[in-house]
Amino acid sequence: MSKYPLSITLLACSLLPLPATADEPPADELPKPGSVVVDQQRRELILSAKVQFPEGKPCINEYGQRVQAFVGCATAAGGDAKMASYFVFLVDVETERVFEGLMKLGCRPSVHYSIEEGRKRSGLKPETSADDYLQGDPVVLSVFWKSETKGWVERAYQHFATEMVEVGERQIEKPWTPHFVFHGSGAIHKSGTGCIACPCDCPGGIIADNRFPIYDPKPNVRFDMAKAPPPGTQVYIRIRPISSRSE
User: Fold this and answer.
1) What is the spatial distance between Cα 225 and Cα 17, in angstroms, rounded to a whole number?
2) pLDDT, tens digit, for every residue of 13-32?
3) In terms of CB atoms within 10 Å, which of 75, 91, 136, 233 comes out highest?
4) Are 176 and 161 in contact (CB under 8 A)?
């Protein structure tokens, strides 16, 4: 039993924000095509995207390794994104605008490199140091869309993929457990790839899984297209930074 009077308990409950229903979008504002929403109050960036099926590309419905993100932009560095055909979630703004939006939310990169410099630092070696990992404030990504049967649905970015690891002579399928950080390399060094969140520590994008050093070893992952909405579906990408604060 609550130690507080019923009237106080009811008042406290009435002040709590009501959760969004399946009929309401899980964001205060949705971006129109070609725009970005930077919500300072909710501390999140919302992007507009469409689903595409990059059939035949690495890690799509089969296990493999890739540097290309599963979510990326159609344009980057003033032109068409080099890796646009690899993405499942194709965002309709330049990568640089995503970078700028995260910076507005206070998210900061700390270790970033060009693709060429990244190749020099590739792999896990006896001399590997902390500077051989891309670094920056951690971020959390999710994808949400309106289903015809279920209303609004939201899934974590890593929900769509699984990972295969070797234990001795066995291969074990496990949840995909990336550690995403905002390093900003793709925008800072104008790589033009369009990648937003790469499944390995790749300097071509702006967010990377930095569990391992730059480029190698790459995790062995499989993106399950059956978990994504059908190609052509309008979806929204939510990025929430865990921003560092100065003492």
Assistant:
1) 34
2) 444 444 455 788 899 999 99
3) 91
4) yes
